[in-house]
Amino acid sequence: MERIKEIRTRVELKEHGLENVHSTDFPGSYEGYDDTWSQEKFEKNFRIEIGRLTADELEFDMIGVDAAIANAFRRILLAEVPTMAIEKVHIYNNTSIIQDEVLAHRLGLIPIKADPRLFEYKQDVDSDPTEEDTIQFELKVRCTRNQHVKDATDPDELYKDHKVTSKHLKWIPVGNQAQIFKEGDIRPVHDDILIAKLRPGQELDLKLFCVKGIGQDHAKFSPVATASYRLLPDITLLKPLTGELAVKLQRCFSPGVIELDIVDGEQKARVAHPRKDTCSREVFRHDDLKDLVKLTRVRDHFIFSVESTGILAPEVLVSQAIQVLMAKCRDVIRELDDKTV
User: Fold this and answer.
1) pTM
2) Residue 322 pLDDT > 90, yes or no?
């Protein structure tokens, strides 16, 4: 029974591969286990624990779900939570060395600080922009020579406005947007994103139009810099390790995973923080250690790491992803109900 329990709850890391990678908790898979799904059982086992939260990053544990659900949640964060991004660029003048299409592509990848929940999807790509579906920016920059400097060689001293950055983007309110949003509510997330370099006489004169979209359509709409998960590591020492062997074991893992305690005047290895382990399997390279340690990962314990691009706070992105997943579930239920009628 212990072996069956381990197969059901752990993914085991071996020297040259993995074992127990497939989910087996389906009804009838094992005698003596009731694997029928029930909402009551799910609510009892499922939980989310927040580990770390900053302005742009969130780490949390999602416990009690199958890998399919965790991966669906990750994919939604990457590709189905909407944002606002530059979609069209009207180029009136571009005498820089950057081609028009390359310049437009660079502009599209600049994250725009605007809450997409306050805007609608543009229904017709050729229709005129409105305050409900479009944000407009203007970019007008002309490089000139600094007349007060003669002997310098540094371009920052020789020229004025020779570096075109995202701070040069000027928001142009559409319709009644000036009454809805304050100055600074709509802007690039970062002011120091380099767009182009100019020399005296060169200039840019552009109008930019932002619309609402999702990463599934184009990566520029993705709200996260990264969204990933890993299974919680679980490390078991099969026998006490002391002395030089304990020190050698500690060096095989990431800092903080293995700690050394002094027991009867001798160093003894102890698994302190398995969560910090990167599962490099370095320990399997040593013949005197590889049979003394067991490396596994908890099958239904996912450590999520979400890094926002700065458009929305990471906790808001997670909330939005949950709403998208719930909407998908409702659509499936509605389709099933329609087919059974």
Assistant:
1) 0.87
2) yes
